[in-house]
Amino acid sequence: GGDWADWATQPAGEDRSAGYSGELGHSYAFRVRGVTPTGKTGEYAQSTTATMVSAGCQEDEYEGTTPGDDDISGAAPLEIGTAQQHNWCPAGDVDWVAFQATAGQNLRLTTSPVDSGTGAIEMLYDSDGVTLLGSASPADDASEASMDWTVPADGVYYVRYTPVNGQIAGSTTYYQALVQAQSSLPTSPLVCGGIVIPLAAGGAYLVSSKLLNRKKTAKRPGWK
User: Fold this and answer.
1) DSSP character for 26?
2) Which residue, 55, 83, 99, sits at the end of a domain?
3) Where are the beta strands (DSSP E) in 13-78?
4) Does residue 210 belong to any structural domain of this protein?
5) 91 versus 218: which is more confidently predicted?
6) Residue 10 belongs to what domain range?
7) What global pTM score does this model have?
8) Cis bond leading into 67, ω under 30°?
């Protein structure tokens, strides 16, 4: 093997794990040592951890024949409300999905990592496949991203996914893509005598009430 080299990105003091992106087909060994808050370093641990990065990876089921879902022409059909899992294979992989939507639908587009460090950036395109309608990026490669969108017209729309970590590749590098319909009926409360009653937009409720346990009072002579 080669000489030891310090990892360019040093973990913070409170970190108990860290991710490293290696090259396919290479072996890596790791060793650690303690560092005090004042910068003093201890001796390296006697034991090391070694790992082999596979020379290749198994593509997900949506790649298919060339170009697969790497290009908009091979975008994987995605049904609203049904999640899909894609992986980042090979290095530099991008994924496209296509979904049918109806004018006026309120949709939420979400990506979430399934395996470590597999967070995705999502970019929504119009039916022409060229006009960018919106995008969402996670805070880091371990977080999800989402955006809300109202469909302007009936048609097929496209989403392009790219990895937050451009170096990631492998068989177990899955993330989840989901387009989900949201309720199109916002609600507002009606306060009636301290009781909150939800009102649906475009609808109505018949509210009736009566006073219970009313105290009886004696009638005075001449009163009706």
Assistant:
1) -
2) 55
3) 27-30, 49-52, 76-77
4) no
5) 91
6) 1-55
7) 0.68
8) yes
